[in-house]
Every structure is written in C-alpha cells, then in structure tokens.
Design a protein that fits this description.
The structure is a homodimer. Chain A is of the alpha+beta class. Chain A has six helices and eleven strands. Chain A has helices spanning 85-94, 96-122, 125-140, 157-164, 168-180, 196-203; strands spanning 8-11, 16-18, 26-32, 35-40, 46-52, 57-58, 71-74, 78-84, 150-152, 184-187, 190-193. The first copy, chain A, has a four-stranded antiparallel beta sheet with strand order 1-8-3-6. In chain A, strands 2-7-4-5 form a four-stranded antiparallel beta sheet. A three-stranded antiparallel beta sheet of chain A has the order 9-11-10, covered by helices on one side. The structure holds a DNA duplex.
DNA sequence: CGTCCTCTTGAGGATAGTCAATTCCAGTGG
DNA sequence: CCACTGGAATTGACTATCCTCAAGAGGACG
C-alpha cells in the first residue's frame, strides 16, 4: 500500500483532513498519529465513529455514498499519504489477493462497528468506556512490542465522550469511577491499564480475535 | 450471484438462520422475506444491527472474526440460498468488477451503520424511530414499482425496539406519538407514511443517495 | 376454550443531559 | 520571567429521557 501512496502530509491536532458532503477521488493512508471519522448531527453535535491508528486506510465508506456523511479529524498531530482511487481499481484487476485482504479489513471494521452499535444501544456509559479502553489496548499493545499496559493516548475527555456518545461532563464522572475502582489511570495523556481482568469484566466483552481466513486467493505469480 | 447460489431453503419467522460464535464456511443470499443480524449482549438482551431485504448477502462481517459476534434471524418467513465461500475466492480472481461491486455494497452498509451509530449516540428514541421508517421506505419503495407510501412491514414492536435500542414499552409510547402527530400509520403490519416531509423533519436526516462510482474495473472480456 | 404472543398503559426510579461556575494547565506574547 | 488566554478538566444542582416492574387487553391458533 505504501508503494502507491503519495508524499507525506502533516496536519495539526483538531484539523479536518477530509470533509463530508463531497464525492471523493482519493483515500488517505494514516502514517503517524491518531485520527477519527466524525459525523455532525443536524443539531450540531459531533460523534466520533471510530479511532484510526497508523496503518489504517481512511475514507473507504465515503466511496459508497454520493455525499459522504463523515469527515476525518486529526485527534493528534498526524502524517497521512494520499492514495488515488485509480490505484484501487488497478488493485482489483491486478492484485486479487490484496483486494480480498482490503475487503477483509473493511469487514473487520464493520464487525467492530457492530459491537459499538450494540454497546451504544444496550450498555450504559461505564461499560462503554471500559470497552473503549479494552479495545484500544488490544490494538496498540501488539505494535508497541511486548504487552504493555501503558498507552500514549492523545484523546481528550471530549473526544472519549464523543466516541461513546455521552457528554464530557458525564464522561468525567464515570472516568473518575473507573479510576476509583483501580481499573485504569489516566494522567498527562498516558493511559495505564491497572487491572486488565477487572476492566474486561466491567466491559462485559470477550477479547477480540481476528479471523485466520483460508479463503483468500493466492498471490498472483509473475510471469 | 444467483448463478452460484445453492438451492432455496425456507425458514419460519423467528428462526436463527446462522448462529454466532463459529468460523463460517458460507454466506447466505436472502431471496424472500426480511432478516436481520442480531447480537446478544452478555446480560441476555438482543440488539438488531440492521434490516436485511431480498437481494442482500448475509454473513459478510463474520468472515473477519474468529468467532462471529452476530447471528442472523428471520424477521418474517424467509427463503435463502447458500453461497459457498470458495465462490468468493474465485470472484476476486476471475471477476474483479463483481468483487469491486461487492466491496462497494459492503462500504454502503458500513456507511449506513455509521449513520445508525451516530443516531444511537446522539438522538433520542423518537428521532431514531422516524429515521428507521424513512430509511425503510427508501429501500422498499423502488422495488415496489412506483413510489408507494404503504409498506408491508413484518416487524413487531419488539423488533423495532431492538433495532433502535430501546425497550418495547418505550417504543409503544413514541410510536403512538408519531401516529398522533399524523406522520405514520401502522396497523396489521402495514406501515403507511402519511407525511413524508414531516417524517424527514422529525428524523433530521437527508434522503439517502448512493454513489455513482466511476472507479470500478471494466467487465473482463471473454477471449 | 385456553394459551401464547403482542400490544397497551401506569407508577416510580436510574441513567445521563443541561446549565453554570471554578480550577488547572500549556502555550503565547510582553 | 510573568501575566494573559483559551482549551481542558472538575464539580454541583436540577431536569429529561428512558428503564423496570406490573397488570391487563386483544388476537391468532391449536
């Protein structure tokens, strides 16, 4: 993916990288920093759909609607590289295995979105926040080498509130409860998981296990 | 898609067509009736992720996780045809345009899921119910020929409640409010949109417009 | 004619929102 | 070096939305 991406571009925290309401001609590969796709409601509230980490490809759902409903926001200073849409077309014809992998990744994000939807519908805010922390650690720990409990987490309390669908006032309260219960610590944008088991129990979810698909096409041989 | 699907199978309303927690070997093409992917929370509550109508391919997100978190439930009597997963592999190598179309469809479902997520996080139950009705009509009207305001809707109030994440008790109340406001009528499983404009206003959403993508690969020529 | 599912209605309570005031802190410019 | 500034975090009082529990009515079907 990196071989077909454009030159790196830097953005500051809070900047809208890709705005909604337009037909898109390109995707963005997130190289460094945290981003998120955001939706603004008709009454001006913001909601963050998901957290994107380095390696994620941003802007895929915008391909399917005439005017995309989500924007992409930088949650920290970020570096992105643009991927033009023609490369996607060529990937489907020339690199079926890559295309299938991309398809698989987007299905995984959809599965995550299903979990978030269920939580939003049926779980209270404390459970949702615990789940957010659990899933964040699961995604970050592998890339940080050994299993670590410390995460450099650039999210503000407002960001977390927008992620789990509550107000920042209420987030502050339940975050204090998780801290008081000895489950997590959060200072200076450093998130520490103090009690992983307890946090899983509070979240009421199972650890995330990606599939090991046997159905992908083989790599196309050069000839 | 129909050419590679297995023989039709019938299921009665309420039956779980595809259960969660297993690695999947096949997909299901919904031929007739309404279905839905359902998630059960750890405390036994049900949540319905989305409504599936005839033509939809069920079970895609289950490809991406080792144990799929959703089941597929029949919301009415349904007819489905099985699609084995090898056909998906072959599609990616032999039919890039079809594969890209499938990719596009799944992105559209993801965009819909983003909207639902935002609503769940930020809108109250009345708004969510109005949106459900709006989106249902948008999907059903085209296939029913001319723009009709009458929809044969097999959903029970419990189903609708599970779709928008409230209890059936509360759903009953807000449904009565929408009826009292003259926006919809619902009797004998027939949903009638009495005031489309008013319903759109109550929902606070724009009409859904699918993309007209220019980036799909061409049909592979026979040679 | 009973049984089960669905729908309906009411009372009281929990979760989360709104409004408002205050503190903390990092960055900026004098 | 320090005051200024704006965002971020914190806390309290009051309110609204939605849930729980409960009881009953209507209807389909054996």
């Amino acid at each position: 993916m990196r071989s077909i991406a454009g030159p790196p571009k830097r953005y500051r925290r809070g900047v809208i990288i890709r705005s909604d309401g337009r037909q898109v001609q390109s995707l963005d590969l997130l190289v460094e920093g945290w981003a998120s796709s955001a939706v603004w409601t008709s009454d001006g509230q913001r909601h963050l759909i998901s957290v994107n980490l380095p390696g994620d490809l941003l802007g895929l759902p915008a391909l399917a609607t005439a005017d995309s409903l989500d924007s992409v926001v930088a949650l920290s200073p970020v570096v992105i590289r643009e991927v033009r849409i023609e490369h996607l077309t060529r990937m489907f014809t020339d690199q079926p295995r890559l295309a299938a992998l991309l398809f698989l990744i987007s299905q995984e994000e959809r599965a995550q979105s299903m979990e978030r939807l269920t939580l939003m519908a049926r779980a209270n805010a404390k459970t949702r926040l615990a789940t957010l922390f659990v899933r964040l650690q699961e995604r970050i720990a592998p890339s940080a080498g050994s299993a670590t409990n410390c995460i450099a987490c650039p999210l503000t309390q407002q960001d977390m509130a927008d992620l789990i669908g509550i107000t920042s006032v209420h987030l502050n309260t339940i975050l204090a409860e998780l801290k008081a219960a000895g489950l997590v610590a959060l200072d200076q944008r450093i998130l520490t998981i103090l009690d992983g088991q307890g946090l899983l129990a509070a979240a009421g979810v199972s650890p995330w296990r990606p599939a090991t698909p046997g159905w992908l096409p083989e790599i196309k041989q050069l000839h």
